[in-house]
Amino acid sequence: MVHKIFVAATGQHCGKTTSSLLFMRAAQTLYGRVGFMKPVGQEYREVGDLKVDKDALLMAEVFGLHAYLPHMSPVVSDRSFTRRFIDGLIDPAELTSRVLDCFSVLERDFDAIVIEGTGHSGVGSVFGLSNARVAALLGAPVTIVTGGGIGQVLDRVALALPLYAQERATVRAVMANKILADKREQSLSYLSRALAPNNLAVVGGLDYTPTLSSPSLRSISTWLRQPILGDTSTQDRLVNALHMGVASSQRVVDLLEADTLVVTASTRDELLVTLASLYDIPEYRTRIVGIIVTGIAPVSPITQRILDASRIPLVRTEANATRTLSELSTFVTKLHASDQSKLSWLFDCGLQQIPLESIAGLFSE
To answer: Domain 215-329, what fold?
Structure first.
């Protein structure tokens, strides 16, 4: 019998994909060969003729599963998918068969399978493949991943449980992620007591850490759809602080923290030259990750020459500085296969926070 787990969530940005990565690595130790499926995907990448969910592609890249990509992402819901389904252009029975056929291939070739849901528990309901129904179809016990806290977690779990009950899917545990380390024991105690009447185990997930939540310069560049200019060897460096370069150059320098990304207008010649000069000083290189230069006005030729000579990492965008900083402040970083420092931390430290025996208890026997 293959060991299975369905990784659900109460919503976006709870750490579901991060948890799936951790479960994949743990299952390699516990069971041997481990496969992955994202039955219903919404954000996809094109790999040859295939449309593949981005999380399925991530798992293929991290765990060397490229040969199974056609079976890891059976249903991709693009922008027109729901409208075409309602118009009767998509057969729901064919969708279900596709999921089951792909899963049978994975069951044949792997000792364990991590199945990752999409969004909250009801996503996919319109075409008959909600997370709850898929978990029931595949016979996989569900672990609901949540964010930190107590009241909000309990409210969102309460909304999800009736749908799983309706579909007769087995919810085995709730895993609270992004817990503040100094409140871990207290939070888990309250959650355990509150969910005890539902016969649900409560598992402590990953503590909140900037290592996983902070974006890299590379991910910001990709998100802005602009290349990194200058020194690209530090593109995987994490950004732990954002500063708006509107004050005097001296004031901006005084406020620099470790691993700061400065957002400033292309017309701030004095500040741009100052930052470029400081980047050559070891003391300040640890504080300056790079610069995002904003605005439609070109950088003056002499300032551009100084920036080029310094090799300070720089991303150029025509959006204004205020809008860019505002959008970056709400930017949620997602793990990529190239984020080796984050993956190393996850696999080393994550398995210290969540013991193997706890993870084993979440899989089907």
So the answer is: 3.40.1390
